[in-house]
Specification:
- By secondary structure, the chain is an alpha/beta fold.
- It has helices at 14-19, 25-30, 32-65, 70-120, 123-128, 131-173, 175-181, 185-222, 224-229, 233-286, 291-332, 405-411, 435-439, 456-461, 469-478, 482-486, 505-517, 535-548, 584-590, 593-610; strands at residues 365-372, 382-389, 394-398, 423-425, 428-429, 442-445, 523-527, 553-557, 569-574, 577-582.
- It has 2 domains: 18-332, ABC transporter transmembrane region fold (Up-down Bundle), CATH 1.20.1560.10; 359-610, P-loop containing nucleotide triphosphate hydrolases (Rossmann fold), CATH 3.40.50.300.
- It contains 20 helices and 10 strands.
- Strand 7, helix 18 (535-548) and strand 8 form a beta-alpha-beta unit.
Length: 611
């Protein structure tokens, strides 16, 4: 005997399906009046549709009786049908405008919510999640949710109301004939239950495969230069083709299930119609029902065909939307690792007391015993770092590759999180400062020079207000790129290609530096931001930056130790530890790690000049 509990045959997994749509509740509440009016219009259309067979019934009975007034009465019945048709058309426009408009608002709200939430997630999330997967969820999955919350809702309400009303009128004509006509219904319910399980799993797989295909195509286009340079077009074409074939194969599996679903609905619906014609015709001949009743009954049975078909369509839309919402919910359920602090109790307006310490900003940074380990890594990236940077001081951080320089810089704007009481800005623990307040004080230029597909002006201004053309030019001049920009045909209004590919690597880096300089931030962090320019150019740009920001705090990382001699202090990291600190001259005299790095790079530069 099977130990598993028996499940009811006629149960339908709507509860689990609808649970996935819970995040959409807020949009249904916001659009409640449009939905109420739209659904009332839909119900009125359904009511008018079930009235039409009654009009036809009366017309048929008039034809049978053939009284002297039959002609005028038939004309009147025809007029009633025309009036009903016009009313149906008007209210059908209303419900389509309101309910389908609601689904578009759901689409917009969900996409904005998803993007807003993604912006709160840490960098580690984007390192483990493919861009193509996020794109697929933001486009394909949200489109499936839109269809479920629009046409899915319409088909569910329309099919249910119309089906119940049609059965009610059929029973009023002849109960026995109605019960006979509904014999196929239990079979339809059982088949629906079986097939919807397959569809749910199929939709999930299809959406996941679409994510993989999107990522493969995105990667192919993003790396087109490398592919062409290495003559690997055929290889990349095969990879995209293989992913596309896998996507089609999963769709074909799902299509087989759908291909069975709708014909089954049609077969059983028409089987009921055949039974009605056979038995109902005999009832009409024997006089048990009038010819008008017989025609009206068939009309209601035809109306019942749509609810039977709608059951399949609703299931299709809701299963697809539910599968997509599950994928979207996984994103929305991701908890940000780095969040704003909770306001202290007793503060009436909820303002954090630490926030006031940043106004006005002095520019001091202090690190006390900072240690940090990346998830999955055995060794600490930073080990017991202690460092104090005074207001208006320029500090350079140097070290070999993997020594922890970038990690240290990313800690200050909380791109990486740290323990409490380890990093302070102007005396305030950065964990107790709102992220917006902290980051709007810091100009951060990372190793990756990222530019948007926009004009040079918009890439540098970066959505900030109150920046004049003169401020823009001064920042570009300090970054050593103003003359090159002015030499372009459209100057500052030149459109850049995707990720700024129309510019060289060095030009992209200098534009991102200008982006940080134009903001005139109290703190400037340069994380090896000039690695793509030559040594002399880097040194010249750094000198201009330091002249421009002589009264502000600067923190600079560079692999070229020869270019950061002007720094007030130089901190040397090795394997995550601070091993040396001092001025250029004192560190050279020390003869330690810094002196070794400096000597190696002097020799490399000399060798470059010879070649």
């Amino acid at each position: 005997m099977n130990s598993r509990a028996a499940k009811p045959i006629f149960s339908f997994p709507f509860a689990a399906m609808l649970k996935n749509f819970q995040p959409l509740r807020v949009y249904f509440v916001q659009n409640r009046w449009a939905l109420v009016i739209g659904l009332l219009s839909l119900l009125l259309v359904d009511l008018l549709q079930v009235i039409i067979p009654l009009v036809i019934k009366k017309a048929i009975d008039l034809l049978v009786t053939q009284t002297p007034e039959t002609g005028s009465l038939l004309f009147r019945q025809g007029g009633i049908i025309v009036a009903i048709a016009l009313t149906i058309a008007m209210f059908r426009y209303v419900w389509r405008r309101l309910i389908l408009g609601h689904s578009r608002k759901v689409e917009q709200g969900l996409r904005n919510r998803m993007y807003g939430h993604l912006q709160t997630l840490p960098l580690s999330f984007f390192q483990k999640t493919k861009t193509g997967d996020l794109m697929a969820r933001a486009i394909n999955d949200i489109n499936a949710v839109r269809m479920a919350s629009g046409m899915g809702l319409v088909a569910l309400v329309d099919g249910s109301v119309l089906g119940i009303a049609a059965i009610g009128f059929m029973m009023s004509i002849d109960l026995k004939l109605t019960l006979i006509a509904l014999i196929p219904a239990p079979v339809v319910v059982i088949l629906t239950k079986i097939l919807t399980r397959r569809m749910s799993k199929g939709f999930e797989t299809v959406q996941s495969t679409f994510s993989d295909l999107t990522e493969r195509v995105r990667e192919a286009f993003a790396g087109i230069r490398v592919i062409k340079a290495h003559n690997r077009e055929a290889w990349e074409y095969t990879r995209v083709k293989t992913e596309g074939e896998r996507y089609i194969a999963e769709n074909m599996k799902l299509a087989k299930t759908l291909a069975v679903f709708f014909p089954v609905m049609t077969i059983f619906t028409n089987a009921g119609l055949a039974i009605v014609i056979l038995l109902g015709g005999r009832y009409a001949i024997s006089g048990s029902i009038t010819p008008g009743d017989f025609v009206a009954f068939i009309s209601y049975l035809n109306l019942l065909t749509w609810p039977m078909m709608a059951m399949g369509w609703v299931t299709n839309l809701l299963q697809r939307g539910s599968a997509s919402m599950r994928r979207i919910n996984r994103i929305l359920e991701e908890v940000p690792d780095i969040t704003d602090p909770v306001p202290s109790q007793g503060v009436s307006d909820g303002t954090l007391p630490e926030e006031s310490n940043l106004k006005p900003v002095e520019g001091a940074i202090e690190i006390r015993g900072l240690s940090l380990k990346y998830p999955g890594q055995g060794d600490d990236a930073l080990k017991n770092i202690c460092l104090k940077i005074n207001t208006s001081e320029t500090v350079a951080v140097v070290g070999r590759v993997g020594s922890g320089k970038s990690t240290l810089l990313q800690v200050i704007p909380r791109l990486l999180d740290v323990q409490e009481d380890t990093v302070f800005v102007d005396g305030s623990d950065i964990r107790k400062i709102p992220l917006k307040t902290l980051r709007e004080k810091i100009g951060f230029v990372s190793q990756e020079a990222f530019l948007f597909s926009d004009t040079i002006r918009n890439n540098v201004v970066f959505g900030r207000d109150g920046i004049s053309d003169q401020d823009l030019k001064d920042a570009l001049r300090a970054a050593g790129i103003l003359e090159e920009i002015q030499g372009l045909e459209n100057g500052l209004d030149t459109m850049l290609g995707e990720r700024g590919t129309t510019l060289s690597g060095g030009q992209r880096q200098r534009l991102t530096i200008a982006r940080a300089l134009v903001g005139s931030f109290p703190f400037l962090i340069l994380d090896d931001a000039l690695s793509m320019v030559d040594t002399r150019t880097e040194e010249g740009i750094l000198n201009q930056i330091l002249d421009r920001r002589s009264n502000k705090t600067n923190l600079i990382v560079s692999h070229r130790v020869s270019t950061i001699r002007r720094a007030d202090r130089i901190v040397v990291l090795d394997r995550g530890e601070r091993v040396e600190e001092g001025t250029h001259d004192s560190l050279i005299a020390l003869g330690g790690v810094y002196a070794t790095l400096y000597e190696e790079q002097i020799q490399e530069e000399a060798l470059e000049k010879e070649t």
